[in-house]
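Mods, move this if it's the wrong board.
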Amino acid sequence: MFTQIGSRSASAYRKVGVETSVARASPHDLVNMLFDGLLLALGSARAAMQRDDIKSKCQQIVIAVRILEEGLKCSLNLEQGGPLATNLNDLYGYCVLRLTQANARNDDAALAEVIALIEPVANGWKEIGGSSAVPQLKAA
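Not the wrong board. Structure tokens:
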């Protein structure tokens, strides 16, 4: 009984913490959060695949695809972002394709490939920080 209540309380606390973080975050920080969530989902999908937990693997891949499609791709300004935005759009689309294949084929190498492609982009984004060199995102 106490475990369920404690678990629900912890979950509610985490949710409020995330909502507060998002509400206070700059556009740059929001993209950082998307990259962090994406890499976490990809790592969790690999771990689930290794322990033959198909349901969890599928859930984590769906989370990763949604972050790519609804978070990272949607935030790109293809009109003003030039070749950088176009290249990122293409990269994210390729990653979605590879994640779909990884899910259907239970292909750990495809998951590892996506991680290897995304990590340098995520690290580069973190390194530029809030500098004026940050590419323009679409206004919300």
